[in-house]
Amino acid sequence: VQLVESGGGLVQPGGSLRLSCAASGFSLDAYLIGWFRQAPGKEREGVSCMMRSDGSPYYADSVRGRFVISRDNAKNTLYLQMNSLKPEDTAVYYCTKYPYDYWGQGTQVTVSS
């Protein structure tokens, strides 16, 4: 099992980024999958997840209305479209699958002017 995130970078406040998580060794649609983030000095927190059964998305209050989670089953890839980014979104973003036994290496997102 492997999860590889990409797409992070430096962006100005109000900007957008799309994160990708390429999965191998399992099928994304067979598990609850999601994104977490960890800012410096803070605990890792859940950002968004997608249910296995029907693909229903869930979002943390802090990102609802700005972030969109999606997946491409053919590519076995999970995405996180992040819009209207704020400095407080700065963190390392990780993808994972339930029961959170495998994690990617993370991708750094920095929102700063």
Low-confidence stretches: none
Number of strands: 11
Query: What about the largest sheet?
Result: 7 strands, mixed
Mean pLDDT, to the nearest integer, reads 95
Helical amount: under 10%
Structural class: mainly beta
Oligomer: single chain
The number of helices is: 0
CA-to-CA gap between the ends? Answer: 37 Å
Radius of gyration: 13 Å
Estimate the strand proportion: over 45%
Order of helices and strands: EEEEEEEEEEE
Name the shape in a single word: globular
Give the SSE layout.
Elements: E1 2-6, E2 9-11, E3 17-24, E4 33-38, E5 45-50, E6 57-59, E7 67-72, E8 77-82, E9 91-97, E10 102-103, E11 107-111
Parallel strand pairs: 2-11
Antiparallel strand pairs: 1-3, 3-8, 4-5, 4-9, 5-6, 7-8, 9-10, 9-11
Structure write-up:
It contains no helices and 11 strands. The chain is mainly β and 113 residues long. Strands 2, 4, 5, 6, 9, 10 and 11 form a 7-stranded mixed beta sheet that branches. The model has no long low-confidence stretch (mean pLDDT 95).
Question: Can you give me a brief rundown of this structure?
Answer:
This protein is mainly β and 113 residues long. Helices cover 0% and strands 50% of the residues.
What are the defining features of this structure?
113 residues; 50% strand; 11 strands; mainly beta
